[in-house]
Amino acid sequence: MICAPLLRLVCALCVLAPVGCGAFRQRTPGDAAVSVCRQFSCEGVTALEQGDCQQAESLLRRAVDAAPTDADARRHLAEALWARGEQAEAIRHMRVAVEEEPEHATAVCRLGQMEAAVGEWKLALRRAQHALQHDPKLADAWALRGRAHLETQQPDEALADLIRALEYSPNNRDVLADLARMYGLRQQSHRRLATVHRLLETYPHGEAPVDSLVMEADAYAALGRNDDAAAGLRDAAERWPQSPALLCRLAEAEAAGGRTDAAVAAAQRALAADQTHLPSQHLLARLSAQDAQLR
Prior knowledge:
This protein is mostly helical. The protein is built from 16 helices and no strands. Keywords: Repeat, Signal, TPR repeat. It comes from Posidoniimonas polymericola.
């Protein structure tokens, strides 16, 4: 690991190194401020990448204080604040950065993502459209516009935008997940399953997150493939054995496939994890009643 003094030296050299004849011109106070700003920015970004958000915020505030109109410093400070949960202030700084560089499509899109995260979907939609004016191939902007269209009750436009986002970023997991959900809402079950499988292929074998496995199981269930749904939920339950909601869904899938004993066992595991879980209680009571009728 590079020690802090050496890292500061590297950052300083990056921002202060003279180039050509410009090295001989007289430095102005503005030049010095920019140099200080960039040094603190360099150190702040490094701290942010290392997960030290508090130190990153401190350094990046000093960068912004040194050069308030430096858009890069503002963007980095916004990200540090966002990482610390200071959403309102993060958005304020990102808006200043965008005012300084309104043609920076990635920054405009990121501002829209932040605004979307706090429910400002109409603003987010405008940011996405603005970003696409300057970079029509920016996948994140297409994805943001798609989500904004969905939130503002424009599902057809949302689907078109998400498909466009995938053209520019074929393995974007967030977009694939959003598309799978869209196909589910539209009851396009085969496309839903194919999209989920495409999502799962982006992960190394055996490393797909539980949420993706559950999405696959739901897609199978929508097609009436209860055995496949149950198999997927068993894998998910092995990875997340203390989730009563997941175990209850597994019990429902086992029951739908005619495996009553397995369904009862899964429901009992759910109640062992949380004895107050009402869906599991109701399911177990229903299974017990069905078993009594058969006898």
